[in-house]
Predict the 3D structure of the following.
Amino acid sequence: MRRLTKPSWLPVDPYIALLVTTVGLAALLPARGVAATGVGWASSVAIGLLFFLYGTRLSTREATQGLSHWRLHLTVVLSTFAVFPLLGLAARGLVPYVLTPQLYTGLLYLCVLPSTIQSSIAFTSIARGNVPAAICAGTYSSLLGMVGTPALAALLMHSSGAGFSAHGLLDIAAQLLAPFLAGQLLRRWIGGFVARHKKVLGLVDRGSILLVVYTAFSEGMVRGIWHQVTAVRLLALLGVEAVLLAVALSLTAFTSRRLGFGRGDRIAIVFCGSKKSLANGLPMASVLFGGQAGLMILPLMLFHQMQLMVCAVIAKRWSNDGHADGEGSLPEGPSPADTGSAPGGAAPARPVPA
């Protein structure tokens, strides 16, 4: 019998597998009582450490140098913090027929998150796009997300009746923004150490996020919120997110072409303007939603894996187009083949999740 193997074009991120395993652990062995209190404190410390390390890694000089390409960065910011939230608000009409109110809140939260950095850079590089622009665009989006994401969440979720309180802004300032600014202030003295040990500290990053996920899903199990989600609702959520991603990819490709950007810039805009950050989203959700965070981050986890799979296919296709005719042609938007099937060939390099 012929052995079945995973298609080369379908990159299943190992980190997503770890996240799913963590969710399973929380379902089987949720933290209770004193253990839950200890895990909660550890999670808060991990979140502060995570954003402190983010601050130590950000090069202010590099970020400043990229400001000359302001049209590209403005296009990415508008896609991330204007178009996505509007699409999220439009999805309100799907409640309660397609999405439950809780899943919709998670979807709306997904729409106000900043873009990724690492995976956007990886896909832009694979597709032979403007990598320096992708680095700066992802950085600016993450910086703006430190304030913009909780502000938009407070505004949109409160107005949509999702039960979100602006009081969470104070928690964001204390647990996320303050450690980030401390990292920036100390970067002059410890930036070199962080750069030399980035592999080890990368494990700290991922371990911190896994702890956040365990804490959120564990508390959700204790509260019994998972009884609100059925397999049919999850399939419906996947369908809605597939449409959301397809619209974002199409709009960024179409808009960047109409604005007259070159091929390399258009590639950076598509990948930076259509993706959402798991690394920023999970800790923020833990701070903003507390015991309800488990259900709120479910749409983000599903969307993250979906965007990696779809963007890997698109990046590989555009890379082949670039090799074939030099400059290459960037399509107006993703074709059905981009989201359903893929061309043959070697597998793209596995991106680092963000």
Notes: Confidence is low (pLDDT under 50) at residues 1-10, 324-329, 331-354. The two ends are 39 Å apart (CA to CA). Residues 216 and 294 are 5 Å apart (CA to CA).
